[in-house]
Design a protein that fits this description.
By secondary structure, the chain is α+β, with helices and mostly antiparallel strands. It is built from four helices and 13 strands.
């Protein structure tokens, strides 16, 4: 295995700057949200003095205080990540490793270990970006399994951290390049995307309706908890959903081309991801230099060929996943 230390490329700098900036703005959002939740929780505590037997108020107060604690904790974690990315940018270096990959595996400390010929190995955190979500959690997802295309010449580019680990910046399986082309979006592609938008809207409306029924028909929640605690968040969620779907619909309708990537799957990593209000297992597939997310863990295995299509944004970057063949 060959090892070399070189400066960060312009692409690497943009990636790390993006992650640093996201981890700069998100802590502020967490602090604001946590402060609001704490303020409402303290207000509910005052109401509890007048309604000490109100089970609903107790539950909602604990919910608010728990949410505030969660927000403050994650704000601290985000600030720590921001400092790490800032240090990597200041160091302005990365390490490249080139050789024949024998095997890749998941380690107990949630990194990927790449074993090369000659007995040497490299550990790194892969960047698993979730479509339509912030990239801030891309390096910290809890992975369940990982497999790669063994016996292949591979080049890894890693931003080094302490304890012989690092953040993976780029991976190239030298004998498995992908073909990338830009093509006009077909009517069937647009129809498929619009169906997804409608389905997403229906799911959120059902959730809001269930929440409404729960609040309306349970006798455990007082009017104070209903008016001050549940209705405002539900209204904000509904308004946010309408704005999100409207923007998403406009972006899809304005897309005229798609990016089509054809190649062999070289890596398959399954990890936990946030989907709506819950977490579920998602699988990331690497084809050429790109990774894409799917909820289908049986879609393909390393060595099998896939064709993936994304909407093309105005700046030439990939947008929404629209087809897998």
């Amino acid at each position: 295995m060959q090892q070399k230390t070189i400066p960060l490329s312009a692409r690497d700098v943009l990636t790390l700057q993006s992650l640093r900036n996201v981890n700069h703005t998100e802590p502020v959002a967490f602090i604001i949200t946590g402060t609001l939740m704490l303020t409402m929780g303290l207000l509910m505590t005052w109401l509890l003095r007048m309604h000490p037997q109100d089970t609903g108020l107790w539950i909602f107060t604990l919910f608010l205080l728990g949410t505030a604690t969660f927000c403050f904790y994650h704000s601290r974690k985000k600030r720590q990540l921001r400092n790490i990315f800032e240090e990597l940018l200041k160091a302005n270096r990365k390490v490249t490793y080139s050789g024949r990959l024998i095997h890749m595996e998941l380690t107990p400390r949630n990194t990927i270990r790449y074993k090369f010929e000659g007995g040497r190995s490299v550990e790194a955190y892969p960047l698993l970006v979730q479509d339509g979500a912030s990239p801030a959690s891309g390096y910290s997802r809890r992975m369940i399994s990982a497999m790669g295309l063994d016996r292949s010449p591979v080049t890894l580019e890693v931003a080094p951290l302490q304890e012989n680990t690092g953040f993976m910046l780029h991976i190239a399986y030298e004998d498995q390049p992908a073909q990338v082309s830009e093509q006009p979006i077909l009517a069937e592609d647009r129809k498929f995307i619009m169906k997804e938008i409608i389905l997403l809207g229906i799911i959120f409306l059902i959730l809001l309706f269930v929440l409404y029924l729960f609040i309306s028909f349970t006798s455990k929640f007082s009017k104070a908890a209903l008016l001050m605690g549940w209705i405002p968040p539900a209204a904000i969620i509904a308004a946010g959903l309408i704005i999100l779907l409207s923007r998403y619909r406009r972006s899809v309708k304005s897309a005229t081309h798609k990016i089509v990537i054809t190649g062999v799957v070289t890596e398959k990593i399954t990890a936990w991801a946030r989907v709506g209000k819950s977490s579920m297992l998602q699988t990331w597939y690497r084809v050429g230099p790109e990774t894409f997310e799917s909820n289908d863990a049986s879609l393909a295995h390393p060595g099998q060929k896939l064709q993936i299509a994304f909407t093309a944004r105005k700046d030439g970057s990939r947008g929404r996943l629209i087809a897998i063949r």
